Amino acid sequence: MQYGSIIQNGARGFSRNAVVLIGFSILYAIVLGVLVWAGSSLNLRLEDSDNAHWGALLAYGVVLLLQVVVHLVGNLALINGALMAVKGQTFRFGQLFSETRQLFNLLGLHVFAATAILLGLLAFGIPGIYLSVGYWFAAFVLVDRKVAFLDAMSGARRMVTPHWFDVAVLLLVIGVISAVGVLAFGVGLFATVPLALCIGASAYQQLSQGS
Q: What is this structure's pTM?
């Protein structure tokens, strides 16, 4: 893997669309934050009440469902934006949502991948570490190739396995870039997270061309 080329291409794609990606990240964080606050408030109210009203329970369930939906839509939008960015495109805000039809596909991917990784970690740890790296690009495969989540998982694993250690090193770099945003009281995450995803999309692009 050509780390320099991957990082440069990802950074260029991000810089072309920085306003849209950062703006969306801020909006995403605000909406999700409001929903988390609402869920916490309802949960406290339910705990303090001896006889929980069905309306409050329903409201709490709806808020939890909305949290999941917003999380999935946000993930899809950022991954789609990162893929468009590294392909040299300059896009508008609304174009981030062009792949929202993959919502249930991404949900299945999250559930199955998390379960497989958890079981792998419980089985002496090494299988879980292998799968956590192997499945990292699965969402990019799902959005880019528009395949079912099981095909995305197997495709990502086949693509990564020959370059597993190289990919693991790159993911550490991506993790460091994301962590830099935390140092600025978390505000920097609005820039470093989409930048890290653009670098990830650039790595996916290079791996796809080589596979």
A: 0.90
The H-assigned helical ranges of the chain are 3-16, 18-48, 54-86, 103-122, 126-134, 138-145, 149-160, 164-183, 189-210
Q: Token digits for 192?
A: 């470093």
Q: How far apart are CA 117 and CA 6, in angstroms?
A: 26
User: In this predicted structure, what is the pLDDT of residue 29?
Assistant: 94
pLDDT for 91-111, tens place per residue?
A: 999 999 999 899 999 999 999
Instruction: Output the average pLDDT for the chain.
Output: 90
Contact 60, 38 (CB under 8 A): no
Residues whose CB is less than 8 angstroms from the CB of residue 13 and which lie 6 or more positions away in sequence, other chains included: 82, 85, 86, 87, 88, 198, 201, 202
C-alpha 115/C-alpha 10 separation (Å) is 30
Q: For residues 76 and 164, give the distance between their C-alpha atoms in angstroms, rounded to a whole number.
A: 24
Rounded CA-CA distance 83/140 in Å is: 8
- Rounded to the nearest 10°, the torsion over CA 98, 103, 104, 105 is 70
Burial environment of residue 23 by CB neighbours within 10 A (0 to 12, 13 to 18, 19 or more): middle
Closest CA to 15 of 205, 187, 199: 199
What single letter denotes the amino acid at residue 139?
A
Q: What is the largest CA-CA distance in the chain?
A: 61
